Amino acid sequence: MGAFHAYDIRGIYNVDWDRDTAYKVAYFIPELLGTKKVLLGHDCRVSSDEIHDAAVQGLTDAGADVYDIGLSSTPMVYFGTANYGFKASIQITASHNPAEYNGMKVSRENALPVGYDTGLGTIKAWIDEGKPTPKAAVKGKVVPFEIMEDYLAFQRKFLQDYSNIKIAMDLSNGMANLFAKKIFGDAPEYLYDTLDGRFPNHEPNPLNVANCRDIMALVKKIGADAGVIYDGDADRVMFIDNKGEFVSPDLVIALLGHYFLEKQGRKGKVIQDIRSSKAVGEYIAPMGGEIFTWKVGRAFAAPKLREIDGIYGGELAGHYYFKDFFYSDSGLLASILVLNIVSELKTKGVTFAEVIAKIRGYENSGEINFRIDRKAEAMDAVRDHFVAKETPTKTMDFDGYRVEFPQWWFNIRPSNTEPYLRLVCEATSKALLDEKLSEIKSIIAKFE
């Protein structure tokens, strides 16, 4: 049962989980969420059809009707869940993981995520204890459910004229292929614009810069003003500037302030995750944005954005959440808005790279992973070492530790989905960053 994680169910299919698990998870969802109508979508992975069939069987055996939207991105399922008032939905996907992985993302009413602590743990317990799965007296039915046109119409509301910019776009052989050309047309130059769940060109994880090499090269080759690359299920998006350089996703949170805070004149709270650069809050503050730092992951960010009635938010992993999109994340909507901003800035003579350079005020390590077993001890040791030496200006302890000092800060946290301890460090100079990183690494090495 190693596929149950904080945010979703995910693992190597037929190793970490299998058809039987998929059937049982689906069977128990109507009971867990108190509904007899479940929206169901799936990505293009080779194993998705089999998991889809098992999920349909489980749901209908439980007496629930399945509203099947077929091939879908994850945000399209979020849209369907909230827009049509479903109390439960499942998207079959392993998001950005390699082709041999698959999973299930479960949502409740208003597209709120169901994580381990809000329901998936209960289902795991039911499966572990062998809770019976008797067939309902009245089997549920399968209803083909077409939502594509409504979804596209919703996205098009945000479109602007891009005729003044040149765009490069990597669809990663993933679910962005369902929409990109219907939204952006033939103007962008596309890479890997066919659905192929084997992901033959690169893994569908654009946070790994190695998977962005082709889109970076294309940006330089055609002189694009911006490059866009989606992950496998199109809930995440990363950007390449006009110089062909990868843009750190947290800085895009600040960039989006030009749309929501500056252009629309909305003032209020903006969510970032605990790993985000201090530059984000500093950049949006003069626009009327108030930064709110919270835990990593959709299971935490989406409900929190709704709770605080935030305008939008984002994560270092390339998720961007929008009040205007049912407080959910959408790679497609994020790309539309960023391209709007790039287009408008170009009319003022400002390039994508120039605005990102203006936002970026610090030297940042990016996320560094350490594979160790004694995660908690290592985290405490790092925190205690620096707190004893220096006086923090701020300390956060809700997702690992983020400890801030006048000239630098670090966040150290255990991964919720992988066997890693993760570190981000930021400082006012490269020399200070290198010094602090070396010091932290030497402490962590004692626990390896």
Q: Which terms summarize this structure?
A:
single chain; about 450 residues; alpha/beta; six-stranded mixed beta sheet; six-stranded antiparallel beta sheet; about 35% helix
Explain how this protein is built.
The chain is an alpha/beta fold and 448 residues long. The protein is built from 15 helices and 22 strands. It has helices spanning 19-33, 48-61, 74-83, 120-128, 148-156, 180-184, 213-222, 249-255, 257-263, 278-284, 298-307, 331-347, 352-359, 375-389, 430-444; strands spanning 9-12, 37-42, 65-71, 88-92, 101-108, 142-144, 167-170, 189-191, 226-230, 237-240, 246-247, 268-273, 289-294, 312-314, 320-322, 328-329, 363-364, 368-370, 394-396, 401-404, 408-414, 421-427. The strands form four sheets. A six-stranded mixed beta sheet has the order 1-5-4-2-3-6, sandwiched between helices. Strands 17, 18, 19, 20, 21 and 22 form a six-stranded antiparallel beta sheet that branches. Strands 8-7-9-10-11 form a five-stranded mixed beta sheet, with helices on both faces. A hairpin with a 6-residue loop joins strand 21 and strand 22 (421-427). Helix 1 (19-33) packs across helix 2. The chain is globular. 51% of the residues are buried.
Q: Mean pLDDT, rounded to whole units?
A: 96
Overall shape: it is globular
Amount of helix:
25-40%
Instruction: Estimate what percentage of residues fall within beta strands.
Output: 15-25%
Q: What structural class is derived from the secondary structure elements? A: alpha/beta
Number of discrete helical segments: 15
